[in-house]
Amino acid sequence: MMQMNNINLTEVGRRENDFQQPILVNYRSQTLKEMPARFIFECAQKLEMKPLTSATAAILYHRFFRELDDTEYDPYMIACSCLYLAGKIKDDKVRKRNVINVAHNTIHRGAPPLEPCDEYWSMWDTIVQAELFIARVLKFDMTIVHPHKYMLHYMKSLQDQFGAQDWQAMPVARAAASFLQDFHHSPKILDYKPAHTAVCCLALAFQVYGVPVPLMDEMDETTRWYNIFCPELTREQHWEIMESIMDVYDMETIISEN
């Protein structure tokens, strides 16, 4: 397989593992614009929301701030509202009370659950109002085509090529799914077609683990395995998307050094 220039793929794999066991961050002291998206996934994990629900919340968040100036709104309250709204959209509902307490405890590490008080009811009202505001900003279009469904289809096809036993023994599927979920931390997830994102997450996993794709030797030089799934995906777009995915892990490195 072709190797990516100037990229340490072993380091990418290590960072991906670190991302799955995130550092406890003091969100109040962090100014990185990616932090609220990270906050969404930490809260979603604590709320035991499904991966597709947290991905939906992240997409809603990124879409919202594509439309509006992020300096005018509290990004963490918008993130809370996106979580609550995503739970409704994906039928993975959580109680507003739990969203409030998890969000409060995530921002204020070690704080006890909020009892009904001015702060509690202020957060409650803000989430309700922000939920409606987000819907209006997005023109009530909550339709999201996730890359996940494409990835499942591609994985099934690849499993047939490798053989079920060999495929299950490889870490490629797990790594690709992790890359896809982590890419939702970045607003760049909105820049690419879901099918392209899915196949590039798989390609990155193959690169990281040095796994060759079967039957590649039988293809001509102008055809790459991912073009079987996405004929219109160019080589340049392929590398660009993979580099955008890997950029997410640079954020975690910056956080760990602060």
From TrEMBL:
GO molecular function terms listed in the Swiss-Prot or TrEMBL record: cyclin-dependent protein serine/threonine kinase regulator activity
Limits of the Cyclin-like domain: 38-136, 153-257
GO BP of this protein: regulation of transcription by RNA polymerase II
Keywords (A to Z) from UniProt: Cyclin
Matching InterPro entries: Cyclin-like_dom, Cyclin-like_sf, Cyclin-Q_first_cyclin_box, Cyclin-Q_second_cyclin_box, Cyclin/Ssn8, Cyclin_N
Entry similarity comment: Belongs to the cyclin family. Cyclin-like FAM58 subfamily.
Name of the protein in its database record: Cyclin-Q
